[in-house]
Design goal:
The complex is a heterodimer of chains A (312) and B (606). With 312 residues, chain A is an all-alpha fold. In chain A, 75% of the residues lie in helices and 0% in strands. Chain A is built from 14 helices and no strands. Helices cover 31% and strands 18% of the residues of chain B. Chain B is built from 19 helices and 23 strands. The chains are: A mainly alpha (312), B alpha+beta (606).
Chain lengths: 312, 606
Amino acid sequence: MTAYIIRRLLYTIPIVFGVLMLTFVLFTLVGGDISLEIAGKGATQETIDEIREEYGFNKPLFLAWDSQFINHFKSALTFDFGRARDREPIIGKIKRGVGPSLALTVPMFFGVVIISVSLALVVAFVHGSIWDISAVFICVAGMSIPYLSFILFGQYFLAYKWGVFPVFFSPDLTMAQYVALPALIGIVAGLGGNLRFYRTVMLDEMRSDYVRTAFAKGLDTKRVLFKHVLKNAMIPIITRVVLAIPFLFLGSLLLERFFGIPGLGYLMIGAISSRDYFVINAMTYISAILFVVFNLITDICYSLVDPRVSLE
Amino acid sequence: MSILKHKPILLLVGLIAATFVLAGCDSSSSDKDSDEMVLRHALFTKLKGLDPGNMRDVYSVTVASQICETLYQYHFLKRPYEIVPLLAEQMPQISDDFLTYVIKIKKGVYFQDDKCFPGGRGRELKAEDFVFAVKRIANIKYLSQNWSMFDGKIVGLDEFREYTKGCESEDDVDYAREVEGLTASDEHTLVIKLKKTWPQLVGTALADIATAPIAKEAVFSYGKDIVSHPVGTGPFVLKVWHRGSYVELVRNPKFRGEPYPGEGEASDAEAGYLDDAGKIMPFADRVVWTVIEEYQPAWLLFLQGKLDNSPIPKDNYNEAITETRELTPVMKQRNIRLKKFLDPSTFWLGFNMQDPVLGSNKPLRRAISYAIDRDKFIEIFFNGRHLVAHGFIAPLMDSYDPNIKEKGYARYDPEKARELLKEAEQIHGRALPELKMAIPGTDSFSRQLGQFLKRYVTAVGLDVEVEYMDWPTYMEKVNTRSAQMFSSGVRASIPDAEDFLGMFYSKYWAPGSNRFNYLNPEFDRLYEKIEVMFDSPERKELYRKMELLVLEDCPAAFLNHRVVFALHHDWYKNYKPHAFAYGMSKYRRIDMKKRAEYKKLLKTIK
């Protein structure tokens, strides 16, 4: 397994290089020159030239030791992303946003996974009953409602009308208070799709011979569900769950924006709208690394939960 | 099989839901500070920085102007707007040739305490601090967005800028280097010598946050982090800036204190704006801005009494305003007040005059202008609140021509548009090609706007493709003169129409303020004339003449002037609308008793 892990880690080098190349080409060649924008209204050519020099936009793109791409590459490898366009160090922005983003996405993630896997077990077990049909109906309805509707509805009724939660972030509130409602909304909005997926996975397992055998042997329902069905359904669950973890880092754009949570989703969309390539680059690079790492973790988990899988 | 057999799982789900409810319970009120007078506002976009020398966006200026002060300001109550001293002792003494300004600085003004000073104690403000502020803008390594304000205006300043080009970095610049036209003749006297007369010097530059002194000790101590460490002389100091989230200012204990104005318009006494006359400002202990980029939460917070004031979101307009443009009974029941006021702004559909199709075809541009139903536009997009723009000078301006409606081409006349299109085709020599319209924004409002304009322009027989793009892409398109038609607007920064006229001066072609890339030698000649003229009836007439020159050439289909409808709670005092509203927090006061009563009122309403 060690050799496998080392080999996979080595694979990350071309992947990360590819990501760096892609972001550089997209933002530098396709995106165009942002000097005019930084210079502001009525800027003279000399100011624009000075900005190009300050940000290194006047250097060769590739073919020089001091080229823009080499500098882009160096800053990524050293995690020294420099300063954003508002002159704040980018790494400081990311560090500050990670906490609120994770405070929102982690409970949302676990909430969705725990509830949907648990309910999926139950509805799969009562497959064909009114409970199952109702669950499928509610799931489809939940999937059909736009995410924004959940937010607007939740914010208006739960926070404003009934006063159960705060409407918006406020420095007087604890983190638990201001992320509770958005996290709850995220869970409710995410349940439909997840519950349907896990129900299908569970049903596939329920129809297996070994389940019938287990019941025939007289094992109780709890033991069959948790000891056998759940364990055998772990491969698709792990694939879905572990690969979702890197996205937790990126936060939730809509929820963060509507509830004023100063997380990384908010940072990312702000950077996109103000064309702050320095921030976008940093976030893309970190996301790519996380994705590669969690992909590897997924493969390792496969071998841990299923002895039939071996890493070679 | 019953699902109820699986009680543990159902209990788990219930437990998770209960946890969220308990965690989020809104038991904490935002009024832990009930004894403190706190102003609570929303910012609808994130702050970019708080360094006065390099900011142009309205939100950053709004916050920074509570911390840093300028030499002059616009009177809080008097209308028409009158410029009055703030850090200056009096209005400047101007030489007979209008080229030398001598400005006495108030004594006894101190910078806020900060660790950048020896012993952490703020020192006295000196004339040299203003010299430093302007030289800093001139320093090319500082990359200030405000340089165009001073370019070619002050004796020796351009040479200083040239010198900075040779410096290695921002920190290597020697600010002691002399600039002949910018000196401190003594500790409290600033002398400015101009290359040519600049009537707007006081209104444009010396009342602009760009020239607000920021302690040089802070600039050198914090380096690039100065954007989050503004050290000024204003009534408030920065306590917390959680970037992208909220800003909190607290009262500056070293602030000298200023009396609330005792004079204003005739109606001010009746409106209660003079109740605090002579009292020492600021009144508030803290000012908090929360960044809320979506309208729904801002509106809900306002209704909950957690924001003092609010604009009216388009979707909530009918909830707040009746057909007669008054408050609805629901709003009145909450003791909410409505303020309506003209904003010095103009919006248009611009034409790129260097575009081969549009630039050489005046009938085509006029046809597009005639094709748009502006009344319908204002009704649909602004609930009928705004005014039709027949020209580009906003009605708030002294030089606004009340008869402009009869003189321009901002009328809806589809028949006339169709006639003009025939003429336009003859000029073009063949069928007119599809035109492209750049709309900044991809949100629903932008798409509706694009659809509206397209609908009216195509109705008279033109083909139009609407291109929706994010703001930076749009700016690049306009700045590189590659946009054919573009939706845009401007808001004047001073109560003088020169801001509007500058948009058509050929030396300011994009990326400058003349995004139409309009060129009219006669207009240019007049612009160069009015640029050095002081306010007079003759100048006003020239302004109007220049506006007509532009309307005749039709470089844009002018659409609307904004009229602001703003709401505030009755506890929010001294909220007189001000078109150039910077540094206003010092005037505001909260009636704490009324604010407390609102909480009780809310319970009865719910």
